[in-house]
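pinned: reference chain
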Amino acid sequence: MAGDSLKFHVLYTILFCLSTMSYGTPADTNCDAIWEVIAVVQPKIFVIDDADGLLHAVLSPPDNLDQQLNDNSGATFRLTVLHREHPCSPASPRPVDHSSPSSLSRYHARARRLAGRLSSCPADGANVSGGAIVANGVPWDCYSYVTRIQLGTPARTHSVLVDTGSSLSWITCKPCKKGCDEAVDPLFDPAASSSYNVIRCRSSLCNIVPAATTSPATCFMPFQSCSYKQTYEDNSTSQGVASIDRLVYGKGTTEAFVFGCTNAFSGLGGRYSGIIGLSANSLSFFSQLSLGCYKAMSYCLPHPRKAGFLQFGRYEQQDGLRFTPLFVDGNHFYVHSTGISVGNVRLDVPPGTGENKTMRCFFDTGTPYTMLPGPLFESLSDAVEKRIQGFYRVGAWTGQTCFERDVSWNEEDVYVPAVRIAFQGSARITLVADDLWFLEGSGLVCLAFKRNAGDDVVLGSRHLMAVHTVVDLEKSMVGLWDRGCT
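pinned: its structure tokens
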């Protein structure tokens, strides 16, 4: 539903993860069919067995690789991606009584403590100085997305989060010293896999692990295991050893998949088996599985009741896809945003954001919020306040921009302006009321935007939901189509 406005019944149409939770799987839901991997063409696997074992299969392919790639450039396979609240998601959170404000309060309080961000918050619903309301904030994994991979010989299934903002993929392994108690899948047992190998410090592959994790090297003795530590923006950490094993996806396999075998984890998301990183680094899931395929990745993050996908290789050239140039900064892909409009009013791009008045925009499924440069965040908040009808703005000490429903307005007269994020070329994303905010309480909504200390835009998972996204490395382009997952 695109357009400059949307008239709607607010309390029934606002999409928010706490109000769409479903627990258990309906009897008529065929989860096996939903999780089925679609392999259009079986990718060829390149393995070199030399003194370093399988290490060079990913980074140093054979001399005749170009010919082999031409023979295999049509290889494509697709993984199913589900919102964490989908009935078939294996890591749905514990049930919450949505009719009980105190129950929701406890849920948010727990999330705040775990995230370590709002540990001294007043009780939910309390007023603080200046009349500001307390916005709970959304736990980072509330809009997280999960897929399944199989690892080892024999292959075991693991539920992993999809993260476009990191590189090294990892799985929780035995023995686990910390943070694995809530995992819904059995821990990966290296001793039970006949194809498992530990990467050693002497390996050239170990030398590039720090670049994938953006952490200092911790490996110095030649025959020592190649250890790693991955720290995320919310201060979650994964620690373990860099490893190699057989990755299975449908009928396809990668014999030399490089990943982190995690023995200690701290932070939110501990109910999942791990994370697959989809950024630009050579050790990312995307880079490793692109060997032998057309170098492209497409994905669509679904609504809680629908299925999305993560596809590698060639993609369908749909009429609705609009493209913008792709750039790389270290481990990260980014595009250039030319600005944001609220309704028909274009907001000014903050000064100092480039010669062409554009802003770098990174896509990060690891955060639910879209982060904006401070001046642009303020302009957006003010523009929405000026044009929205049927709500009045309230302060939020958490820094969010929130609105409360004005009960004196008739439902049919409520108006919420659309927000458009434009990019170089013809690509854009249009956000209508359902996409703009999170429901924080009865009649209280907060925009799914936050202030960024820098000059960049980070597009979060809430605003990437139902946006068909293509990352085409062959053409150095990103395609966007905000009409749902097909």
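why pinned: Residues 1-27, 40-72, 94-136 have pLDDT under 50 and may be disordered. DSSP finds ten helices and 28 strands in the chain.
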